[in-house]
Amino acid sequence: MEGMEQWSHEAKQWLQRGIEYAQQIPPNQLYAAAAVLLITTLLLVIVRLFKRTKSNTIMLTGLTGSGKTVLFYQLRDGSSHQGTVTSMEPNEGTFILHSESSKKGKTKPVHLVDVPGHSRLRPKLDEFLPQAAGIVFVVDALEFLPNLRAVSEYLYDILTKASVVKRKVPVLICCNKTDKVTAHTKDFIRKQLEKEIEKLRASRSGISEADVANEFTLGVHGEVFSFSHCSNKVSIAESSGLTGDISQLEQFIREHVEP
Ligand SMILES: Nc1nc2c(ncn2[C@@H]2O[C@H](COP(=O)(O)OP(=O)(O)OP(=O)(O)O)[C@@H](O)[C@H]2O)c(=O)[nH]1
Ligand SMILES: [Mg+2]
């Protein structure tokens, strides 16, 4: 009992000292301290809210036949569902990546949208782009050269969209079908794409302004185009949807959809 009284007495003394100390501080300084505390708390709350609403949507885009749907199933089920046909509707799903399904604890489901490459269905892209956390642009590394112009035009369109440029949506150029020895390497593909986009850039900037459908111009004026000039991050990877060699793709998804 005596110990208790002693303790409460001491506590009161300390409190008294504290109050005296606080009274010595000029009120201005106290207000400033309170304001700083308030602002920090507010900032933390905002950051928290912002983080929670972060998108988990990853888009699979690219020409028809590049292998998007095979990649979609590979990411979801870990198998290729061979014999897919040209998709007529976007393929959509929210799931835990197959490679992470056995992992306990921190995994966040990914909302994956596979937008068909058929030109008639490409406007569907605009429906999902405003919420995209990342774009995977799938390129057929086997039939690459015959499609170079078409691939570059589609990529150019994506890289100049307002919803991509303004929000700096990261883009992964995924060179697919590397299971075949005749597949081109990602370095070769990157160089060819940069060259072709440079040509597109020159021809499109010649058109009168009213005809330009693209919302932003690409690259640095007066310099030969390079993906490093894009305001958003553009990286390049290799994959094979058929054999399930998709680790670089999964890494990109994880980087932009954090658990
Ligand atoms: N060798 C090889 N073939 C592949 C690979 N991925 C897909 N293919 C083949 O490429 C063809 C097209 O694959 P899809 O996944 O249907 O292509 P897509 O991009 O969804 O095409 P659209 O739906 O028309 O836009 C199929 O015949 C697949 O078997 C791969 O990694 N390696
Ligand atoms: Mg498809």
TrEMBL record:
Q: Name one Pfam family in it.
A: SRPRB
* Membrane association type: Single-pass membrane protein
List, in alphabetical order, the Gene Ontology terms for molecular function in this entry.
Answer: GTP binding
Write out the entry's keywords from A to Z: Endoplasmic reticulum, ER-Golgi transport, GTP-binding, Lipoprotein, Membrane, Myristate, Nucleotide-binding, Protein transport, Receptor, Transmembrane, Transmembrane helix, Transport
* Spans traversing the lipid bilayer: 30-50
Q: Which residues form a coiled coil?
A: none
UniProt-listed InterPro entries: P-loop_NTPase, Small_GTPase_ARF, SRP_receptor_beta_su
Could you tell me which PROSITE patterns the record lists for this protein? ARF
Is Transport set as a keyword in this record?
yes
Q: What superkingdom does the record give?
A: Eukaryota
Q: Which SUPFAM superfamilies match?
A: P-loop containing nucleoside triphosphate hydrolases
Q: Which GO terms describe its cellular component?
A: signal recognition particle receptor complex
User: Would the keyword Amino-acid biosynthesis be found if you checked this record's keyword annotation?
Assistant: no
Q: Which GO terms describe its biological process?
A: protein targeting to ER; protein transport; vesicle-mediated transport
Q: Where in the cell is it found?
A: Endoplasmic reticulum membrane
The record's similarity note reads: Belongs to the small GTPase superfamily. Arf family. Belongs to the SRP receptor beta subunit family.
What is this protein identified as?
A: Signal recognition particle receptor subunit beta
